[in-house]
Amino acid sequence: MQMRKFKVKMQRIHEVFISHMHGDHYLGLMGFISSMHLLGRKSRLTVYGPPELKEILEMQLKASQTFLEYPLEIVAWSPEAKECIYEDKSLRVWSFPLKHRIDCCGFIFEEKQRKPKITKTSIAQYDLLPSQIIQLKNGNSVVLNNGETLAPEKVCEEPEPAKSYAYCSDTAYSEKVIGAVTGCTTIYHESTFLESEAERAKSTFHSTAKQAAMVAKQAGVKRLLLGHFSSRYANDDDFKKEAESIFKTVSLANEGTVFTVH
Ligand SMILES: [Zn+2]
Question: pTM, whole model, 2 decimals?
Answer without folding.
Answer: 0.89
